[in-house]
């Protein structure tokens, strides 16, 4: 089994974290996106969307980080992370879908303006974009706060792929001046995530 990643990518990190958590032999293959490796025919044959991550296992070619995370957890028998109980599995899936439909749509433009532009020398942040997205982000964070104010984790009563999914999106949050302090339960949850060995092992900024 091979997992294709770029270690700077939060989406790739989402799958990479799970790869670190499961007892499954996974070869990590680094994709050099600076040289356009992700747009070359060999990689496009695996992921025609020319993005990371992607996974191959025999004849299976899989893309989308949450699908890969689910597959890895299932292969590793980690029903704590990816439950087999229908209600629990639906609960985890709900948060994974919510991440794409709500959380990331608000968060990612802010991270691009305040973190990624500086990281890749793309000019000054457009604070008008940030101002437009902050209300959406606060709405999303309030949803998380309501859940985490009464529970340690987003789904079920334990760490699951729901937590991994949304935490990975926050990889660059510490440098983005986000209003996280307004949501103490979210801050406490993120602190628990950051103590995980798999989180530390996949930190793209470690040593920088």
Walk me through the structure.
The protein has a four-stranded mixed β-sheet with strand order 2-1-3-4, with helices on one face. It has eight helices and four strands. The longest helix is centred in the middle third of the chain and has 34 residues, at 86-119. The protein has two domains: 2-75, Glutaredoxin (3-Layer(aba) Sandwich), CATH 3.40.30.10; 86-200, Glutathione S-transferase Yfyf (Class Pi), Chain A, domain 2, CATH 1.20.1050. The model has no long low-confidence stretch (mean pLDDT 97). It starts with a strand and ends in a 7-residue tail after the last helix. It is an alpha+beta fold and 208 residues long.
Q: What distinguishing features does this structure have?
A:
208 residues, alpha+beta, Glutathione S-transferase Yfyf (Class Pi), Chain A, domain 2, 8 helices
Task: Please sum up the structure shown.
The protein is an alpha+beta fold and 208 residues long. Helix content is 52%, strand content 8%.
Give the SSE map.
Layout (H helix, E strand, L loop, with lengths): L1 E4 L4 H12 L5 E4 L10 H4 L9 E4 L2 E4 L1 H11 L10 H34 L7 H22 L12 H9 L14 H11 L2 H5 L7
Parallel strand pairs: 1-2
Antiparallel strand pairs: 1-3, 3-4
Give the N-to-C terminal Cα separation: 30 Å
Number of domains: 2
- Per DSSP E runs of 2 or more residues, the count of β-strands stands at 4
β-strand percent reads 5-15%
Provide the CATH top-level class of the largest domain.
Mainly Alpha
CATH architectural category of the largest domain: Up-down Bundle
Overall structural class, as computed from helix and strand content, comes to alpha+beta
Mean pLDDT: 97
DSSP helix fraction = 40-55%
């Amino acid at each position: 089994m091979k997992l294709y990643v770029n270690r700077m990518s939060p989406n790739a990190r989402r799958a990479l974290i799970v790869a670190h958590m499961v007892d499954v032999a996974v070869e990590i293959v680094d994709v050099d996106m600076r040289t356009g490796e992700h747009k070359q025919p060999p990689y496009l044959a695996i992921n025609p969307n020319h993005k990371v991550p992607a996974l191959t296992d025999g004849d299976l070619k899989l893309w989308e980080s949450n699908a890969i995370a689910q597959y890895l957890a299932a292969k590793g028998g980690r029903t704590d992370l990816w439950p087999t109980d229908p209600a629990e599995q639906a609960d985890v899936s709900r948060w994974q879908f919510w991440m794409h439909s709500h959380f990331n749509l608000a968060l990612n433009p802010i991270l691009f303006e305040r973190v990624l532009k500086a990281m890749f020398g793309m000019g000054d942040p457009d604070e008008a974009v940030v101002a437009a997205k902050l209300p959406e982000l606060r709405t999303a964070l309030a949803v998380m706060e309501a859940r985490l104010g009464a529970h340690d984790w987003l789904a079920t009563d334990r760490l699951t792929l729901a937590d991994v999914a949304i935490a990975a999106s926050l990889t660059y949050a510490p440098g983005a001046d986000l209003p996280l302090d307004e949501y103490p339960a979210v801050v406490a949850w993120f602190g628990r995530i950051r103590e995980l060995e798999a989180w530390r092992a996949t930190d793209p900024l470690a040593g920088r």
